[in-house]
Amino acid sequence: MRDNTIDARLKAAMNIGNLPEPQGDLSDLSALHTRKASVMAPQSRTKLLGGGVALLALAITVPLGVSAITQLPPPLFTLAGGGSGLGAEAGGAAESSQLMGDSVIDRSFFIDTEYQVGPGLSPDGGSGGVYQVLLSGTPESVLARVSSAFGLAGTARESEYSDATMPLYVVGPDDGTGASANLSWSGTGQWSYYNSEVYPAPVCETVDEISEEGTVVSYDDCEFSDPLGTPPSVDAAKEQAAALFAQTGLTVAAVDVQVLWQDDLNLSLFASIQVEGMNTALEWTLSYAGSRISSASGHSVELVEKGQFDTVSPVAAVERIDSGLWWGLASSEFYLGAVATTFPAPVGGEGDVPETQVLVVTDARKTLLTVWDGAGNAWLVPGFVMNPRDGWYVSTISLIEGVIELPEPIPSEFLRDELAPAPVN
């Protein structure tokens, strides 16, 4: 009787002769799918499923004891070493974290933190979009638009600090001695405007002192004055910010401009590119010193959607925090009014810190995080911003494993040795 099993019919169709019997039932494709199909974009899943027979036919030609060959989609990109990296491309969110106090962030490197799942976190996964961030326009066109918005004369030229790895362009003085616009033509194409002239020139006098060695040491003792005037009202500043943001590439309503920082003499505002209804770390900023605009910044980008991908639950994401590899940059809105982490008082000798600080995660808010790949390109990926009870906000990428490739971890001992403050004599 003719053998009509799928194994026999496939062998006959391929005329492969008497090869060793493959392991298992070839009608079962599950062994070939080592990664869930749903981690890929819909078009990718269609291609894989449509090629299932071809993969199956290839698998049965492999001799016994040799692993079957599968065609799995490669990761979209590899994260930059040490997570996403926080450099010139960080934008307003980096500025806001500095305003909240660098000492809190720095000290956390020297404390072992244990993150625990608190009540209310969802155990359910989901999905989210991944977006590639591409440069838009040319250095000349971007800086021409910025110069027009802020009343700068001149054309873009390559900065004296520019090199092949970090192309930089400038309009105005390259040393910050006057109003100027600068552009980094990589990553998110971040531009910045700065006007040092809003600050009165310092009054300095030369002071001579005798050093411990008995020599005369001279230095300038300078007195700095506050900027003149006071910032406009918040409503008026938001209207002006929205108009300037529109001239430089971000269309936003004044009501969506938020206050980043405010005191009697200074006012800083920001607004974000919104994707899927969520603010991102791709932000435009505007700052006043006294009554005049002192600085501004923005980006030169377009976004390309790469597909929808599966994401882990908030409960599962908590386990990723400790490694630091899943970090991404969130919108500044998450840091407004944040309470810095309170560490227990040191115990033991001077400079000692507790071995473990326990922070309980009670809130995980879905967002899009900005990350960088190993080549310096920016991406938006789904993630959570988590608020440990009585702690600092932390961010975690929520993509399931395999969608992107993680960098090699940096040993915590190395970080502590490199970042530890110098001993005080």
- As an assembly, this protein is single chain
Contiguous uncertain segments of 5+ residues: 1-70, 83-109, 339-349, 414-425
Kindly report how far apart the N and C termini lie: 93 Å
Main β-sheet, in a few words?
Answer: 8 strands, antiparallel
Mean pLDDT: 77
What is the overall number of helices? 9
User: In terms of structural class, how would the helical and strand content be classed?
Assistant: alpha+beta
**Proportion in β-strands:** 25-35%
Query: Helical residue percent?
Result: 10-25%
Coarse morphology: globular
Return the domain count: 3
Strands side by side in the biggest sheet:
3-4-5-6-12-11-10-9
Task: Give your account of this protein's structure.
This protein has 425 residues and is α+β, with helices and mostly antiparallel strands. The chain is 19% helix and 29% strand. The chain has three domains: 6-59, no CATH class; 88-133 and 304-419, no CATH class; 135-300, no CATH class. The strands form three sheets. The protein has an eight-stranded antiparallel sheet, sandwiched between helices. Strands 1, 2, 13, 14, 15 and 16 form a six-stranded mixed sheet that branches. The chain is globular and about 65 Å long.
Task: Name the descriptors.
425 residues, 16 strands, 19% helix, disordered N terminus, globular, alpha+beta, 6-stranded mixed sheet, 8-stranded antiparallel sheet, 9 helices, disordered C terminus
Could you write a compact summary of the structure shown?
This protein is an alpha+beta fold and 425 residues long. It has three domains: 6-59, no CATH class; 88-133 and 304-419, no CATH class; 135-300, no CATH class. The protein has nine helices and 16 strands.
